[in-house]
Amino acid sequence: MKVLVVGSTGYVGMMLLRILSSHPEIDAIVPVSRSAAGKRLREIDPALGPAIEPLLAGTDGRLVSLEGASPESADVIFSALPHGAAAALVGPFVGTTPVIDLSADFRITSLERYEAVYATKHPYPELLDRAVYGLTEWHREEIATAAIVACPGCYPTATLLPLLPFTDIVRTPAIVNALSGISGAGRKEKQDLLFNERSENANAYNPGRAHRHVPEIEQELASLEILFTPHLVPLKQGMIVTTVAELSRDISQDEAEQRIRDAYEGSSFVGLSPRGIPQSRDVRNTNRCDIGVRVHGTHIELFSAIDNLYKGAAGQGVQNMNVRLGLPEHLGLRAHGEF
Amino acid sequence: MKVLVVGSTGYVGMMLLRILSSHPEIDAIVPVSRSAAGKRLREIDPALGPAIEPLLAGTDGRLVSLEGASPESADVIFSALPHGAAAALVGPFVGTTPVIDLSADFRITSLERYEAVYATKHPYPELLDRAVYGLTEWHREEIATAAIVACPGCYPTATLLPLLPFTDIVRTPAIVNALSGISGAGRKEKQDLLFNERSENANAYNPGRAHRHVPEIEQELASLEILFTPHLVPLKQGMIVTTVAELSRDISQDEAEQRIRDAYEGSSFVGLSPRGIPQSRDVRNTNRCDIGVRVHGTHIELFSAIDNLYKGAAGQGVQNMNVRLGLPEHLGLRAHGEF
Amino acid sequence: MKVLVVGSTGYVGMMLLRILSSHPEIDAIVPVSRSAAGKRLREIDPALGPAIEPLLAGTDGRLVSLEGASPESADVIFSALPHGAAAALVGPFVGTTPVIDLSADFRITSLERYEAVYATKHPYPELLDRAVYGLTEWHREEIATAAIVACPGCYPTATLLPLLPFTDIVRTPAIVNALSGISGAGRKEKQDLLFNERSENANAYNPGRAHRHVPEIEQELASLEILFTPHLVPLKQGMIVTTVAELSRDISQDEAEQRIRDAYEGSSFVGLSPRGIPQSRDVRNTNRCDIGVRVHGTHIELFSAIDNLYKGAAGQGVQNMNVRLGLPEHLGLRAHGEF
Amino acid sequence: MKVLVVGSTGYVGMMLLRILSSHPEIDAIVPVSRSAAGKRLREIDPALGPAIEPLLAGTDGRLVSLEGASPESADVIFSALPHGAAAALVGPFVGTTPVIDLSADFRITSLERYEAVYATKHPYPELLDRAVYGLTEWHREEIATAAIVACPGCYPTATLLPLLPFTDIVRTPAIVNALSGISGAGRKEKQDLLFNERSENANAYNPGRAHRHVPEIEQELASLEILFTPHLVPLKQGMIVTTVAELSRDISQDEAEQRIRDAYEGSSFVGLSPRGIPQSRDVRNTNRCDIGVRVHGTHIELFSAIDNLYKGAAGQGVQNMNVRLGLPEHLGLRAHGEF
Q1: Which chain C residues contact residue A330 at CB under 8 A?
Q2: pLDDT tens profile D159-187
Q3: I need a labelling partner for D159 at 20 to 30 A (CA). Which of A16, B338, C19, D278 fits?
Q4: Contacts of C339 in chain A (CB under 8 A)
Q5: From the candidates B100, B154, B226, B235, which is the catalytic residue?
Q6: How far is C335 from chain B (nearest CA, A)?
């Protein structure tokens, strides 16, 4: 199988290359980059070992432009571009080749809402209804035949997985506090992402309803609203979400845990943490989402941990590729975290 | 002036020594330690520069036992011991010498609640009503004449300072999420405090009503209850608290900000952040608490940042000493954070 | 294939479990622990995902004591114990089952030197000549039939791989400066390994000829001596070694690079860095050693980067297992670092 | 006293503002910035507390352009600009107002060497001999009357202080390995200074004789040459230097230590570490340089620790200001590190 990765030099693209190059069903990878076409991939990303070279035989080890990539011959196209750019580039291939999109361009089903939130014109509005929201554990069947899989953002993934099993019994709004590693902000040359500005530093930002991921989360939650406060903490990779909501009816601790077990029965990657409350290192460099739940009388509290670049982006993308191509869902995805 | 510091080898004691040795009114410091009596302080704590030596002339540069410390000659006694031990040691001096206690032993006014929360007998229950809760900005007058100043914990300090100006207009419970640097857990030789266990790691713990600081916080809040979720993040020093509460009546953004300004008018250390939402580095190694506030329609959200060892412990202790001894409140305390 | 891992709860053992559980030829893992026998492995090490459970079927997911481990039925025994303890435990199986020892017990061929350096009696001195030094790239043939593979320490691995190709043309002593991540010090509950003591901190220690790894390194270098200065830096995993030595004859930059290429031709894991000078992240969580070399007129300078727990311990152990059992040397070992 | 700080928004300028605003002899600070003139300083640098406002009364709390700064009325001018820009800006004031320059522009006495190393024309070559090299402990007398104090770089400071007392008895070249925190690279928006690129990462760079600080160091060492290898490690602030050199005559450990004591007798900031080998945290946020020395038979090894932004830049600048203005050398400078 041959895969195209459009946007190979950002953190999500780099993680994709790592996962795909260890995937047992992938024979060829075509790394596409606008800015670095023509350069040797291992010079751009020296942490890739020589073992990736055979997979890059088709491009002689180099990044290529989209034009040079023969996208029509690919079995699947991954897009790891910024919003706007992603839709513009993959649009022409939709319907011909399965597209796994890691941008925001096909996540929001309402055109008006998308254009309001992202302050841009959508280049292919007619494709919005060809896309399926790629929160794998909740949309497997539709993903299996989708033209476009619109993979969720990291915040929505970590927020929705613990919360979806409880939407029928919590009152609006749920109070969501999220802690993200710095790679979630991308590989941008911005002063406030420098080591010296983030080391020994933590802060909240864009609170309430200001973060772009709020509409995406609420779209999946139906009538439940959230107050969402993201925080940056000095992790490279990792995300923790803590959600508190008032219950509309009593539930026992056992029943709450059982809801998680039931929702994710048979899942390779999502389930209750052996710790009770998960830690971000437990799932670093894995496709897992570890969950915890505590009932405090009138309120319920939910905990989740993911790796924002893995289950929150590239890993879930590959999981969706597996589902879309009829492969075992867990194939090629890491299961053991760090310590 | 001569000060005794009982418990000089933990993080709070070490921070106290740094602050006191730069304080313009302190002539002599007597560092007391049970475990390290007789050793040279600068060998135990090599980051102290030679400039501290003249202040230690009375003990020849050494740590001493309490017996060898001539506590009766001190102008003030600081206790930076674990709970239980603190009360037992300083009890005999109460009423004779002003005591600034940084433990939990005199924070909770109810004996039964103290003994339940800390699972220990209080050695001097008769002294509980001699203590004043040392949240300086809210109890200056009582602190000025107190026999014991019971300095707040770091979580209560960072939670109460932004929340107290709003207790009349928020509904119970307030949802409090706190992020703490690792030094908040003390200098214990525990596996889960090792660099390798905390680097690239973040997690919630003791959520809901399980943390020992909840009764202390609620005692100051009168009838308002909280759901409190502390998190550990890989900072050495620093604390961020984010609180969301439902409003019982409408309030504008301007009015909310004005409440903070009014509450802390004339304060050297507490006020609105120039950023809107504060960052932990802004107040690292300072006695400041920077505050932010956002009104989201039906709910209010409060943000605060402190250094858990400084304003959250040793710095507030010295601030209370200044108040107790009639010195300018800001004397010897740092005002500028890191960048 | 069934493998025993003796010492499963330290960092090296934990890394071994991760590698072995993704190894395509391993069917069963028996995790042995003295201190935690009887406990469920995933409760002790929650970052292990549920995917490890089938491999642990023989122990019902639990750690077992050595007595309960049926070591005679294993295809290979890994020892990740402290020195002294390792030899005592694996001694009885030597000659029956291949032993991959990650301790120092069989690295030093001279009994007197071992006992002097480690200040202990060797429990099985008669086995010293049954052991082969497991620096894979230099001793493949002997490893393939060894009763015991004595895997090198992390400092020796990172020092020897770049230096061995030049021993004929450098003068004694070579000046070796090594930077290690904190996990190199093990999972000990020691104050100076706490997050708060190592974050924002770096220092040299045990310089000159004082570190225990010096005799091990010099044993492989024959007549070349070293002055070795290790440093601790705030990395979780990672090691950088910089070596400067005077040349005994001229060599060009090209010739120097060619020596590295020749020495590691066909090697899956060791070679010149695409960067020129490697970075520790390039090889994090991989079995690689990336090398750089610079000729400065009269002197040569060598650079290397490894992951101290992977190529410097568990990964090289599995590489040696592969060689010992006639499997492809790279099997189950990661090749791509972080970014 | 009134001081001008030209270049107030880089890390060195920000550190200068912190030190100067706590200095007992400073009444007024004029913060100068080309890029941010007109903006409120506390909005640009929110970690500065309200306590700085009275010192900024002359500019109404704002950054100003050089033209608006009335530099002729200042008692001293600090320049914290990049090389080239620094000389161009402060040139006109030399001889009128004492200039403390923290750039490289006046460090190298040879015009040709300066222009070769920095690949730029010097805008005021005629001023080169008006400058004194500001390694305070070695040039106090000349600094006291200098028109320009050319403050050393951080690498030269940490290399020279331990090495200068031994230049008469070591053979060339000395092998110098330096570890620097990331702030040493400045506040540049460069991809390789992002948190995600530096966290969990360490590497050597520009080794041998390639780093721009080599000529500056060798100028002070007279006939001794160095091979200098800088490394980046994930510290925000901090620097460790380890130097190994062959001895030209025997020296005992005691004699070596005594040389350090003699060289720095009476110094407030430089001396032997109580630890033997210093750690970077010992001197974080201080003006100290802690030193260690070990004699290994034929070779000597030297260790030093500084804060690269404090003693390595802004702190030494203020120390030089104190000397130049006849104030006590230690005034306003911190002496106690972190723990």
Answers
A1: 51
A2: 999 999 999 999 999 999 999 999 999 99
A3: B338
A4: 11, 14, 45, 47
A5: B154
A6: 22
- Tally the domains of chain D: 2
D321, two tokens:
């200001």
CB C198 within 8 A of CB C250: no
Give alpha helix (H) positions in B236-297. Answer: 253-263
Lowest mean pLDDT among A24-28, A254-258, C67-71, C320-324: C67-71
3-state secondary structure of C9: coil
Residue B330 has pLDDT above 90, yes or no: yes
Burial class from Cβ neighbours inside 10 Å (0-12, 13-18, 19+) for residue A162 reads: buried
CA B75 vs. chain centroid, Å, equals 21
> Both B247 and B136 in a single domain?
no
Q: Is the domain of D301 the same as that of D316?
A: no
Question: Chain D residues with CB inside 8 Å of C231's CB?
Answer: 179, 240, 242
Task: Pinpoint the alpha helices (H) of chain B.
Answer: 11-21, 41-44, 85-90, 111-118, 136-143, 154-163, 195-198, 213-221, 253-263, 315-324
In terms of domains, do B206 and B144 share one? no
Cβ neighbours of A173 in B, within 8 Å = 299
Q: What is the pLDDT of residue B72?
A: 87
Chains touching chain B, criterion 3+ CB pairs below 8 Å: A, C, D
Helix axes B11-21, B315-324, angle to 10 degrees: 50
Chain A environment of C48 (Cβ under 8 Å): 336-337
Each residue's pLDDT tens digit, B277-310: 999 999 999 999 999 999 999 999 999 999 999 9
D330 located within any domain:
no
Inspect the interface and report whether the beta carbons of A227 and B179 lie closer than 8 Å: no
- Among candidates A200, A209, A235 on the partner chain, residue whose Cβ is nearest the Cβ of B281: A200
Chains contacting C (3+ CB pairs below 8 angstroms): A, B, D
Residues of A recognised as catalytic? 154
C-alpha–C-alpha distance, residues D179 and D198, integer Å: 13
Instruction: Give the pLDDT of residue C72.
Output: 87
Q: What's the average model confidence in pLDDT over D102-118? A: 96
Report ipTM (2 d.p.): 0.96
- Cβ pair D52:B274 closer than 8 A: no
Decide if pLDDT at B222 tops 90: no
CB A52 within 8 A of CB A80: no
Please report the beta strands in D15-138, taking only residues with DSSP state E, as ranges in sequence order: 28-32, 76-79, 99-101, 131-133
Of A196, A200, A301, the CB nearest to B238: A200
* Separation CA B268–CA B232 (nearest Å): 29
How do residues A171-228 score in pLDDT, each as one tens digit?
999 999 999 999 999 999 999 999 999 999 999 999 998 899 999 999 999 899 999 9
Interface of B with D in 46-75 (CB under 8 A): 46-52
Of the candidates D207, D157, D153, the one whose C-alpha atom is nearest the C-alpha of residue D177 is D207
The residue range of the domain holding C30 is: 2-152+312-324
pLDDT at C313: 98
φ, ψ dihedrals at C124, nearest 5°? -135, 65
CB interface of D with B, residues 9-28, below 8 Å: 11, 14, 17-18, 21-22
Residue A335, domain member (yes or no): no
Q: How many CA atoms lie within 13 A of A197 on its CB side?
A: 19
DSSP state of A311: I
User: Is A18–C336 a contact, with Cβ atoms under 8 angstroms apart?
Assistant: yes
C128: in domain: yes
Active-site positions of C read 154
D338 touches C: beta carbon within 8 Å? yes
Q: CA angle, corner D240, sides to D234 and D244, nearest 5?
A: 130
Tracing tokens 């199986």 back to the chain, one arrives at: C93
Going from the C-alpha of C52 to that of each of A280, A312, C42, C45, the distances in angstroms are 19, 22, 9, 11
* In a domain? residue D49: yes
